[in-house]
User: What shape does this take?
Amino acid sequence: MDNEEKGIVKKGIKSIIVIWLIGGFLFFQIAALVLLSIISVERSEIQDRIEEGVDYLPVTITWTDCRQEKTRKRSHGKLSTETRYYNTYSYTVNGVEYYDTVENVPYSVVVGEQETRYYNPNDPNVISGYRSVQERVEKVNGEMVSLCTFFQTLAIVSLVIFVLILVLGKKK
Assistant: This one.
């Protein structure tokens, strides 16, 4: 292979690397933006479900029923069965028994099993897996923000490498 052919191969490899870096930058930027939008939606949903400024009180729920529903659907020419569950639980607050159902979820529960949840002392019908809006937001932030930061860091690294390749390529 002569020098001209080596130069062509180097330029081809450099072009492929640049394309991958640009693609990586765009992918990681989009991933970070998607996570930020998920965080935003999750925060607004949290505030809709959990009353701001109220500390929910612990209560023991007991799973009382688990009903499954199987549906058959065709996807990409294949017939598959999807199982969804409707899990019912009860809990007692101040001598009043409450019932609720977690609908259309991909998991079943064991009837009779107990778990701790938190109810709104202003309205015991409202129950949550968290004591307060702040606790839930902290969990969302802890999981999603760190992942978003990771994607953003990868995007910046891709961009820096891309710029270095361009700058060093022009010096030659």
The chain is about 50% helix and 35% strand. The mean pLDDT is 83. The radius of gyration is 26 Å. The first strand starts at residue 57 and ends at 75.
